[in-house]
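Input sequence (455 aa), recorded before submission:
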Amino acid sequence: MKIDTDREASYKALLAIEREGSYSNLELSKLLNGDEILNKGFIREIVYGVIENKIYIDYILDKFIKKGARKTKLQALIILRMGVYQILFMNSVPNYAAVNESVALTRRFAKGMDGFINGVLRNFIRNIDSASEVDVKGQLEYLGIRYSCRIELVEELVNMLGFEHTKLLLEHAVKRPPLSIRVNTAKISVEGLAERLRAKGFDAQESKLSDRVLIVKGGALTETNEYKEGLFSIQSEESCAIADFADAKSAELVIDLCAAPGGKTAAMAEQMLKPGNMNESRTVTESSTESGKIIALEIYEHRSALIEATSRRLGLDNIEVICHDATKQIDELVGKADLVLADVPCSGLGVIRRKPEIKYRDEFDFDQLVEIQKNILETGSSYVKYGGKLVYSTCTVNPMENEGIIENFLARHDDFISEKEIKLSPFANGYDGFYMNKLKKVEGRVPNGCGVQDR
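Predicted structure, token format:
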């Protein structure tokens, strides 16, 4: 029996993720990069779907496997998970196809277990309604199984957010996020790009959150000439909203403290370009001579290279990348920046649907994260000139990493005031969980503890 190449690719990705602890987005990027034969959308659906629902699928499989799913040979278990996911969640796949293709995979990758795989999946189909029910007494245990989240994290979230908000967060986490793109408005208008994509058969709708983001359906965007020409970047609405919130348009010097992979850096760099009336003959290089500059800091060299690659593709020459630890001060930059963005490392609890592995982490060291966040914000504040802005942002819903950091900072800094705060979350407005706070450095005041309060 011939193996379906898309399912084979999905199997290999899931095996690598399970064995090596790889991140799903990185493994898929490596697998799908440049291969035009594979149905990338189908592969992403299966890989992300299985990871997002792993505990729930294993709970179902336990009803049909005497020794339990987790004691099944890994290769066979992955094939079973793929089969159950297709049967339960993918209406476009007939049940017989899910079974037959799973058996074909088994004959290649788990030899001798094809009868077992066939029997389990057919038994599941016969009992799908009762098998899909989660029959447990405890509410937290139910959430952990149905939405595939370690019970320890469920308990942590309930303590943090309450039961109802936790339920909404976990429901949101198993929904597929829309594909959104940020238009490079230094090269083309939002309307102009939307028209070009629609002419190629894509459905392109304007975002309600950011006026330079399009929600797109319909194919392999990164294989289009528009992508190769640097007319857009793949970026979530919420992530682009941080750059919009920072508002770098009038800044002469911007410092992005934790810049990789470079999406927000590029979004601000595009804001800073002043192209005037756009036309085909005007180049980004011509425009960028009128713009300010961004210094993008990133601690790891290989991630710094990602920022540089993004800058080249988009034609942005107003970004300088420096490999540097954002918790360590660069003396030459003290008091020089109009805008500093501190998009700090965080627990990522707001973006679980984009990084489903978060649900299975053994533990979160929130105290260590908070210390790093405090240090980055503190160092970043030293770069802001009087009248300048300091933007703090995260992709978490943890108040300790959000409001708690700002409250702690302002208690120690009389020379900063909070101008605006934005919270995005599944339970507030249906978006991924992000936090943003814009602080202004106030003329004539100094930090607490410096002895003199007025100048």
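Checked by second reader. Confidence is low (pLDDT under 50) at residues 276-289, 449-455.
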